[in-house]
C-alpha cells in the first residue's frame, strides 16, 4: 500500500476521531459509538477506522457523521474518501456491482486516448482477448473476489472496446511476456483460439504487438502489468486494487520501464514464431504458418 494512500487513511481517521470527541451531547468512547451505530459495528472497527487501518464505505461515513451529531460533516468526509480512492481503487469497492462498471470506467479512459501503451506479463491483454478467453478470465476473477456475476455484460463491454483497434488515429503499443501465451486460465481449446487471434492481428496498422521470449536477455525483470493512457495516466493492477496514477514523475517511470522491456521484445514475423511455438504445445499438429 502506498505511503500517500496510508497517510490519507490516517488523516481520515483523525477527522473521524475529532467528530467522536466533539459530539454535541458529550464525548463518546469507541464502545459507545459502536453501540450507537448498531449492527456490524464494534469497538475494534471504530479503532481501526480512526487509526487508518481500515477504509470506511461511503454509507459508513454517513452513519458516523449522524451518530456523532455532525451530519453536516458527511460531504467533507466523502470528498476525502473520493480523493484518495481516485488513485487506489480497491477491487472490493469496484466490483460491488460486478465487472461491467469496471469495464465501462476503462472504456471511458480509452475513449480519451490516442496512444495506449500496455505491458502484460501473465495474461493476453483485454484489448486482444477473444470473447471466450475474456469470459474465463472474468469468471475466475469474480470467483476470487466473491463479486456479483455479470460476466456476459462485462465480456460484451470488453469486446466492444476492441473496436478502437480499427479506428483511424488510434495507436496501440502492446507488449507481453511469452509466459502469457502458455497460461491455462481457460481450457486449451480456448487458449488455442486466442493464440490464433493474436497471430491474425499482427500487421494491423494501429497495432504494434511485441512479445518478450523466454530466452531473451532482460535489462529489468517483468513486473506487474500496466497501461499508459497517452502520457496522462498509468493504471497498474494488483490483487487488492488498481492504482490510477497521474503525476508526471510516475508516468515517466512507467514509460522508462516499458521502453527498457521493449529492448528485449520481438515483433512481426519473429513474434509470429513465438506465438506459433506456444500454439504447437497445445496441438503438435497445428499449422505453423
Provide the fold topology.
Layout: H1 3-21, H2 30-37, H3 43-50, H4 58-67, H5 74-85, E1 88-90, H6 91-94, H7 100-111, E2 115-120, H8 131-145, H9 151-161, E3 171-177, H10 188-201, E4 207-212, E5 226-229, E6 233-237, E7 241-245, H11 248-262, H12 268-282
Parallel strand pairs: 2-3, 3-4
Antiparallel strand pairs: 1-7, 2-5, 5-6, 6-7
CATH superfamily of the largest domain: Endonuclease Chain A
> Total strand count, please?
7
What string, H for helix and E for strand, traces the elements in order? HHHHHEHHEHHEHEEEEHH
Determine the CATH topology of the largest domain.
Answer: Endonuclease, Chain A
Assign a percent range to the helix content. 40-55%
- DSSP strand content: 5-15%
Helical stretch count? Answer: 12
Query: End-to-end span in angstroms?
Result: 46 Å
Give the strand order of the largest sheet, numbering strands 1, 2, ... along the chain: 1-7-6-5-2-3-4
Structural class: alpha/beta
The CATH top-level class label of the largest domain:
Alpha Beta
Choose one word for the global shape: elongated
- What is the domain total for the residues? 2
Query: Mean of the pLDDT scores?
Result: 92
Rg: 23 Å
Strand count, sense and barrel status of the largest sheet are: 7 strands, mixed
Low-pLDDT segments, ≥5 res: none
CATH architectural name of the largest domain: 2-Layer Sandwich
Amino acid at each position: 500500500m502506498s505511503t500517500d494512500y496510508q497517510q490519507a487513511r490516517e488523516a481520515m481517521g483523525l477527522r473521524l476521531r475529532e467528530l467522536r470527541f466533539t459530539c454535541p451531547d458529550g464525548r463518546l468512547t469507541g464502545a459507545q459509538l459502536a453501540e450507537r451505530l448498531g449492527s456490524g459495528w464494534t469497538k475494534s472497527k471504530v479503532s481501526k477506522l480512526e487509526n487508518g487501518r481500515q477504509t470506511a464505505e461511503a454509507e459508513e461515513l454517513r452513519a458516523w457523521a449522524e451518530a456523532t451529531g455532525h451530519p453536516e460533516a458527511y460531504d467533507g468526509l466523502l470528498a476525502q474518501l473520493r480523493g484518495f480512492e481516485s488513485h487506489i481503487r480497491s477491487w472490493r469497492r469496484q466490483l460491488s456491482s460486478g465487472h461491467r462498471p469496471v469495464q465501462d470506467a476503462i472504456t471511458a479512459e480509452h475513449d480519451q486516448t490516442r496512444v495506449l501503451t500496455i505491458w502484460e506479463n501473465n495474461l493476453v491483454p483485454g484489448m486482444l482477448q477473444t470473447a471466450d478467453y475474456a469470459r474465463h478470465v472474468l469468471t475466475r476473477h469474480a470467483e476470487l473476489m466473491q463479486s456479483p456475476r455479470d460476466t456476459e455484460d462485462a465480456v460484451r463491454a470488453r469486446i466492444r472496446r476492441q473496436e478502437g483497434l480499427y479506428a483511424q488515429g488510434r495507436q496501440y503499443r502492446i507488449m507481453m511476456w511469452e509466459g502469457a501465451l502458455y497460461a491455462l486460465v481457460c481450457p486449451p481449446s480456448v487458449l488455442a483460439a486466442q493464440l490464433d487471434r493474436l497471430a491474425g492481428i499482427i500487421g494491423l496498422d494501429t497495432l504494434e504487438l511485441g512479445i518478450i521470449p523466454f530466452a531473451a536477455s532482460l535489462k529489468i525483470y517483468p513486473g506487474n502489468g500496466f497501461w499508459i493512457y497517452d502520457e496522462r495516466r498509468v493504471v497498474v493492477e494488483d490483487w487488492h486494487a488498481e492504482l490510477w496514477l497521474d503525476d508526471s514523475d510516475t508516468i515517466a517511470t512507467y514509460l522508462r520501464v516499458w521502453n527498457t522491456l521493449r529492448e528485449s521484445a520481438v515483433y512481426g514475423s519473429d513474434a509470429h514464431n513465438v506465438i506459433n511455438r506456444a500454439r504447437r504445445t497445445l496441438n503438435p499438429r497445428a499449422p505453423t504458418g
